[in-house]
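Weekly structure sync - notes
Attendees: PM, LS, DV (DV joined late)
Agenda: review two folding runs queued last week.

Item 1: First target. Sequence and C-alpha cells pasted below for the record.
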Amino acid sequence: MVRAVVVGAGGRMGRRIVQTVLETSGIALVGAVEAEDHPAIGKDVGDFLGCGKQGVVVDSDINRGVDKSDVLIDFTTPQVALRSLEIGVKRRLAVVIGTTGFSPGEMERGRALALKTRCVMAPNMSVGVNVMFKIVAEIADVLGADYDVEIVEAHHRLKKDAPSGTAIRLGETIAGTLGQDLQRVGVWGRKGLIGERTSTEIGMSVVRAGDIVGDHTVIFGGVGERLEVTHRAHSRDNFARGAVRAALWVVGQPEGFYDMQDVLGLRAKGNAR
C-alpha cells in the first residue's frame, strides 16, 4: 500500500486529489497539508470535503505527516512545491509535482532537487494532454517549417500564471522538434502594428474567463489548409487521476527526474528527459 500526503489539500486541485486517493485501491491518504490560515486546518479532511471522517486531520506543518508516508503530492505554488521537494530529498520520499508558474531559476532549482529523489514533475497530468504532447511533436516533424504554429489556451478566471504550463510545454515540444528555442521564437501575445508574421515564431494566446477548467489548441497553419489539435478538460478529475497514477508509479522507480511521458510509457526510447 502506497502512503500519500497531499500538500495543498484544500485547494481546487488538492480536494480532487484527496478524493481520488480515497477512491483508489493501492494508495492510502496518511496526511493532508494546507496553509496555516486555511479554514480546513484542524479539521478531519473527510469532514472538510463532506465525505465522512477519514482519520486524517488537515495540518499546516508538513513535517508532522511525512514520517509515515511514501510520497508527497503537491499542486500548490512554486515556493511551496520547492519546499516539498526539499523535504522529499531529506526524508527520501517520492514526490509528485503538478504545480506550474515556476520561474527559470525556480525550475532549475526544482530539477536539481528532483534528481536527488524520485520525482514526477509535469505541467499537466491528464493522460489526454500527454498524448497531445507526443502527437504535436510528430505533426511538427512531418510538417516542418512550412506551417505556422499558434497555441491558444483558456482557463478559469482565478488562474494566476499565463501562459499555462501546458501551453508552454506544447510550445517547447514543437520548438524542440523544429530545432528552435521557444524563448527565442515565442511571441507572447500581439498588439498594434506588429508587421508580418515571421516564419519561425510560435504564437501564444491566453484566455481567462469564468470556470473554464482548461482548453488547449495547437494550430498548424499552412497555405490553403490548417490542422488543429485540441484538448478540452471537462473537470479536474482527469488531472487528479493522473497525479495518483504518477504517485503509484514513481515510488517504485530509481532516483531521477520524470514526467508523465515516463509514467505513461510515451517517451521514445533513447529520448531521456
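Item 2: Second target, run right after the first with the same settings.
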Amino acid sequence: MPALLDIQDLHVSVEGKPILKGVNLKVGAGEVHALMGPNGSGKSTLSNTLMGHPKYRVTQGKILYGGEDITGLKPHERARKGMFLAFQYPAAIPGVTVANFIRTAIKSVKGEGEAVKAFRKTLREKMALLEMDEKFASRYVNDGFSGGEKKRLEILQMALLSPRLAILDETDSGLDIDALRIVSSGINKLAGPENAILLITHYQRILGYVKPHFVHVLLNGQIAHSGGPDMALELERRGYDWLREEEEKAPAGV
C-alpha cells in the first residue's frame, strides 16, 4: 500500500529563487510527522506547495498522494481529495460568519452540504470539542480574533472537513499556554488510523502535547535529518547549529 503522502526529490522556486532543493518525505496513514527548522529553511514553502499555491513553482520532482501524482492539481482539487492546510497567518473575512464560511467550505470540498439543522448540531459538537463558545459561530471570520481564536478556527475547520491529510503550518505560533493546550487537544482528538498529520513548527513545546511518530529537520531546502520524538528535545537543547556542522563534515554525495 503506498504512503498517503510521498514527496519525491521536490525542487521549488519562488519568483525564480530556488527554495526547496530536493525534499524527500513519506507520510503514512495513522502517522503524525513533525517538520522543524529555522526561519528561511523552506517549511512554509513546502506547506504551500503541497496545497498547490500558484506562487510556488515545482521545477523538479513530484508529489504523490495515495499513489496518485497530484503535482499539477489546483488547490481546490487537492482539497476535494482530502488535503487540508491550516495557515500560519489566517486571513480575516469581515461580513462572513464562521458558520456560513464553514458550511460553504464543506459544500465546496465534499460536493454537498448537510441540512441546516444537522450542520448546526455537528458544528456545536465540534465547537464543544475545542472549548469554543457557541456565539463564536456568529462572528465574522478572524475579524478581531485573538491569535488563539484564529488557530482554534483552523482546527475547527479541520474537524468539520475531516481531511485524510492535515498540514498544520505553525499552528502553535502566537498561542499562550492555555490556547496551546486546547488546540493541541483538538489535534489529538482528530488524529486517527485513517488520516495523517504533518505538523510544521519552530519549537518543541507543541510536541509536548501532540506526540509525533517522526521528527524531520529542514535545512537549506532539504530534509537534513529524521528521527523519533526525542529528536525535538535534542533540537530544543542544542539548536540547529550541530546539524549544520554535521552536514558540513559529511562527505559530498552522502
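Discussion on item 2: The chain has a mean pLDDT of 91.
Action: LS to circulate a short write-up before next sync.
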